Amino acid sequence: MAGDKMVKDAQPAIREANKLLLQRFAFDDTQDYDDAARGLLGTRDDRQIRDAEGRVVWDLDAYAFLRDECPDTVNPSLWRQGQLVIQDGLFEVAEGIYQVRGFDLSNMTLIEGDTGVLVIDPLLTVETAAAGLALYRAHRGDRPVKAVLYTHSHADHFGGVKGVVTEDEVTGGVPVFAPEGFLEHAISENVYAGTAMNRRAAFMYGAALPPGTQGQVSAGLGQTLSTGTVSLIPPTVTISRTGQAETVDGIRLVFQLTPGTEAPAELNIHFPDRAALCMAENATHNLHNLLTLRGAEVRDPHVWARFLDESVNLFLDGTDVAFASHHWPVWGRDRVERFLSEQHDMYAYLHDQTLRMLNQGLTGPEIAEQMQVPPALERVWHSHGYYGSVSHNTKAIYQRYLGWFDGNPAHLWEHPPAEAAARYVSVMGGADKVLDHARQSFTEGDYRWVVQLVNHVIFADPDNAEARALQADALEQLGYGSENGTWRNFYLMGAYELRNGSVGTPTATTSPDVLAALTLDQLLDALAIRVDGPRCWDKDISVRWNLADGQPVTMRLRNGVLSHRIGPTSTSADADAEITLPEADLRAVLLGQMSPPDLTDRAEVSGDPAKLTELLACLTDPDPDFAIVTP
């Protein structure tokens, strides 16, 4: 792998396991290949998409190696999925419906109207979305964007919006549609826990891994994340109920709200005049996540299955093609029904069987090991865990119902990892003995045990070079054997960082546009989670902001908690400082774009202005480069 000279070949145990998969599944079934290639009108000549500074944010040829035979270092099923998702270009889905695929992790869909085009899910970054729109126009003419629609609240479905429409155009009347709750969830996910999610997303998508047979192959849902500019234009039209119908530029849309499925705010769309159904990210060609490895709220498979059944009931009779914001469409009413029904059955089965075993006393890891998928479902490729997995989805269901504690009091108050690791290594006779045992297990092909064992040595002594090298080798083998793209990425990223050091966070979704979309209430909440509580236990500071263009805001730091009230408050007389200014200046102060001294000529200040400085000094910055595979 370029950039990492220490990568190894696949060990015999992995080579054999990967070889057996070729006999287990129907690799001679080419239906998905036919569907993924169907309707191709053309693609981009310049294979690299760059930002304004000339930096490559997406390379359409980075995964060309997938067109060759599958090597020993990649699970053949994942290789197959990778071959399917690298097909790039503009594709005709149905008359007047087109998709740009392979230009980012997600798809951008364009629906032609009377005079222009409706853009659905404008990718993750501005640069890839602009390139996709340019490709569409090169083949279909310079049609204006008449509307934008976000199917749900994940950044890869709204982040490129400024590549297809401007804020002035939206202000001038171009509507932006989104499901109810979109903005709240888009912001809370990308701001409140955004730093941690983005750091873990670097592992999940392998964005820093060089693409290649010993590196990043696929994320299952798509190749990886583009690394351009994430933008956001807040929606102007809210879809609030199933059955709600809208007409845009002559395009009739009928909506189905699906909250709590793949995203907290999500919707499907039926186009009755085109006999087409957009399933957003609720039915794609893989088993999806119930709890994404980057971290999120646990999704509800019971609700997810119910909504899939509702989609069939509501729309099947008027549907000849189903498409989604990832992967390729399914054509033919019978095939659409089978596809959606099998997706329904997969989520319902995992939910019901996890609950059955949970109620027999099994824990999450035990359920994950025992869960067996019905043969009829296992045989269909779109049930495979390229993005989600049976293993981590069943653990997520357990977590949703019972939480982190498995009921065993021995697990109620365990030592944290580093302290426990030191004790484990000590009672096992020291690091050398542990590593000797781990090397034997490595030779036997028990890589799962190797990484569990050596993890203790690393967390007891993170500078132990032999432990880091062995752990990296074992993680690498687990990656080579993983059918799940995100598992492979996590394993190989872990190996990479043990050998080369941290790569940080290549793509951050906490962009200026996302921050600007925060309500004042959300911004103040985001500030509160940055307070270093122990350092501020003894402080009691209150600051009142009198907004020239809004309601007053009172902030109080007490007992290490920064709370706020918006509107009149009976405690206003107790404020240590009162500051009168426009809301834009308050936002600038809270975002760190303006310091308290900058307010001297811009605001009226009474009381003790030093108290504001003292309060802001209690804030800490999140760490986008925190350790994952070391303490």
Outline of this structure?
The protein is built from 21 helices and 21 strands. It starts with 11 loop residues before the first helix and ends in a 15-residue tail after the last helix.
Structure description:
By secondary structure, the protein is of the alpha+beta class. The chain has 21 helices and 21 strands. The strands form 4 sheets. It has an 8-stranded mixed sheet, covered by helices on one side. It has a 6-stranded mixed sheet with strand order 11-12-13-14-15-16, with helices on one face.
Which terms summarize this structure?
631 residues; 15% strand; 6-stranded mixed beta sheet; alpha+beta; globular; single chain; 8-stranded mixed beta sheet
Instruction: Write down the Rg.
Output: 26 Å
- Helical/strand content category: alpha+beta
The side-by-side strand order for the widest beta sheet comes to: 1-4-5-6-7-8-9-10
Number of strands: 21
Gross morphology: globular
Strand content: 15-25%
Q: In which range does the helix fraction lie?
A: 25-40%
Which stretches are poorly predicted, pLDDT < 50 over at least 5 residues? none
Rounded to the nearest angstrom, the distance between the terminal CA atoms is 26 Å
Q: Number of helix segments?
A: 21
Largest sheet features: 8 strands, mixed
Mean pLDDT: 95
